[in-house]
Amino acid sequence: MSWNIILNSSKTKTPLVELVRNASKKTGGSTRNTNCKVRPKHRGWKVQDGHNVTAGHILATQLTTRFMPGLNVGFGRNGTLFAIEAGKVVVTCEKFDPNWEHTWVKRIYAGREEQTIFKKYFNVIPEPQHNRFKLIDEV
């Protein structure tokens, strides 16, 4: 609060005291992100088994290696699987034979040495090329 003193313009020179009240709170701002909810990352399969893809198409996103790259499939730095060539997506479940001497393998697969471990592999089978060319001359 602040005090403003105003002189009276009448013939008597008695001061008038006026009380001015300022805002005690800030003005209301945006309430869009006050609940602090995190948007989901939408990880998982992006293309189902049997679909046709082009080169560079993302097949799956993952945080840990749930899915393994197979034939004509690349593995990104963040675990993303993508198609290297255009073709048909085939997802297979294959036997996985890890290197049991590796420290990470020992930690992740501890107690499963006698079990058979299966992993899902993403494969891209390339489309067969056309046979429209004719051999004219051999070099």
Automatic annotation (TrEMBL):
Its main location: mitochondrion. The keyword Cell inner membrane does not apply. It holds the Pfam family Ribosomal_L27. It is found in: Mitochondrion. It comes from the Eukaryota. GO terms for molecular function: structural constituent of ribosome. The keyword Cell cycle does not apply. Keywords: Mitochondrion, Ribonucleoprotein, Ribosomal protein, Transit peptide. GO terms for cellular component: mitochondrial inner membrane; mitochondrial large ribosomal subunit. GO terms for biological process: translation. InterPro entries: Ribosomal_bL27. Belongs to the bacterial ribosomal protein bL27 family. This is Large ribosomal subunit protein bL27m. It comes from Bicyclus anynana (Squinting bush brown butterfly).
